[in-house]
Predict the 3D structure of the following.
Amino acid sequence: VAELFAKAQAQAAEKYRGVKVKEQSELAAYREAFRAVGINPNKYPSSIEALLTRISKGKMLTSITPLVDLGNAASLLESVPIGAHAVDALAEGTLGVRRARENDTFVPFGETVAEAPDLGEIVYASGTTVRTRRFLWRQSELGKITPQTKDILYLLDGFSDRREDLERGCDLLAKYLTEVFHAQVKIGLITKDEPEFIF
């Protein structure tokens, strides 16, 4: 995983050196989607745009845990946002995309104090706990992956015209999870027509 993580960062650094990441075609759909739901992508870039922008400026990512590094490596290699959530921290084992409501709370990564998301913003939520704010912008401290985490839900977010990138990302994750971590893997696809995945 460490080798893959290093390779992914090196490839991204080479590909995005000296360019404006936010102007690249592979990120256009995310920026358009953000605008469509009222999120300013310049102020709140998607997680993949933030990662690639950092790397394009010569700032390499810090290793967190092998399972997080694996997700970040796949994200960089395919230029798609990938979030990792500890399943045992999900309320009733569910996670969904919806608009933020009254009584929702969000604990920023690295913090202990909860904040209230803006009403109506697009969030990933489990019960009243928001796991990711502003759709694909920032994950919560709650449900983060630690060395003790045993059950993980990786979310790859994308669009129908880049389905091959998403599939390659899934295949890469599945390969490493089974061969390196000896994990059992279940893959599902959520679309407008198939809005639910049972895991």
